[in-house]
């Protein structure tokens, strides 16, 4: 049964079939509303997109921490309880990753694509959208790589947007990793011993690697200097990070804490971790090694790590433009525009950072787009929930320099009592969040 108004079929438009757009479309259709889901792939792709599937993961295949007693884990549990399609598909396509939830990226995207194509209330329309619909309820979820024409329309509507660069890590073929110079383990033995391949380095190896990394040739960027202060901290290229000091990587992506090399019985001087990309464990990504180095330089410099001397690269690291809105000036906590409430934005372009954070914004925008078209008041999530805290940050951040934010306990209101133990404190935040979420969901039934 098509949803009708005055005997006329009415649709919600969703522009963009990434994580936010797919989740938004699903939430709208679940509420019996017809959806037109626009996606420019496969007719047109950005430099970061390779697959024809919807909901493509263009960077890491990790969806961050799995445990409930963490900000990322709490957000995912909230989404599960709200019937998130992406969480259902993520749980079904999980690959070993220690304490993280990582997925087989092709299986994950394939499941999402199949479910949306099978949903009778969702009409998938291929091709690039270059204009914003002049009327009707619309969710714009075109992501940080929004194409030029539509980006200009959004700028005309919203004024100046902000720009930063996002970087993706290389992926290597598993069989090309030298396991004589690597070992399998998770930090502090959490999550079993098969989650990560660890590539240790001694002091001399590390310092030689560091010296070559900071002087390696980078790919040219003509539109902005990669040293610009708006290079986003959460995806800082490893070569830029290394310039901050000799030991910066050893306290960052190459920290050896919680690991012991079985060959020596000691903690290595530095360690690069490799995380599996798929269930078959045929590919591994270099964790924390987002980069803008030229491809030959990636092979040369990363090949100085003993375990990667003969590595074959399935995908080299790339760096690409990201765009996000000055959302506190523009958006409400339901992700609608204050000046045009029938128009919603979702995903990383709103100022949330991370895969599931983007999906969460799509979930909220989708629910509220369905409510808008049926004449219901907006559903504002409690700020004590991670879902609501992210929406509140996007809409009400008081920072003079608004920057993207991922799920973290710091954006939640403080607990009434101080709990010293970090794990217990995170558990208390989670318990409070889920209790309030359940009350809200029950009140909507």
Commentary on this structure:
The protein folds into 2 domains: 4-161 and 325-444, 3-Layer(bba) Sandwich (FAD/NAD(P)-binding domain); 168-321, Elongation Factor Tu (Ef-tu), domain 3. Helices cover 31% and strands 17% of the residues. The protein is built from 12 helices and 18 strands. The protein has helices at residues 19-30, 71-81, 85-92, 105-118, 148-158, 203-215, 238-242, 295-302, 327-330, 355-373, 386-396, 422-444, and strands at residues 4-5, 8-9, 11-15, 34-39, 62-65, 94-95, 100-103, 122-126, 138-140, 162-168, 171-173, 183-184, 196-201, 270-276, 283-286, 313-315, 318-324, 343-345. Strands 12-13-14-15-11-16 form a 6-stranded antiparallel beta sheet. α1 (19-30) links the parallel β3 (11-15) and β4. α1 runs parallel beside α10 and α2 runs parallel beside α12 (422-444). The longest helix is centred in the last third of the chain and has 23 residues, at 422-444. The relative contact order is 0.17.
pLDDT averaged over residues: 89
Return the structural class. alpha+beta
CATH architecture of the largest domain: 3-Layer(bba) Sandwich
CATH class of the largest domain: Alpha Beta
Q: What is the N-to-C order of secondary-structure elements (H for helix, E for strand)?
A: EEEHEEHHEEHEEHEEEEHHEEHEEHEHHH
Q: How many domains is the backbone divided into?
A: 2
DSSP helix count? 12
Low-confidence stretches: 222-229
Mass-distribution shape? globular
The biggest beta sheet reads: 6 strands, antiparallel
CATH homologous superfamily assignment of the largest domain: FAD/NAD(P)-binding domain
User: How much β-strand is present in the residues?
Assistant: 15-25%
State the share of residues found in helices, binned by percent.
25-40%
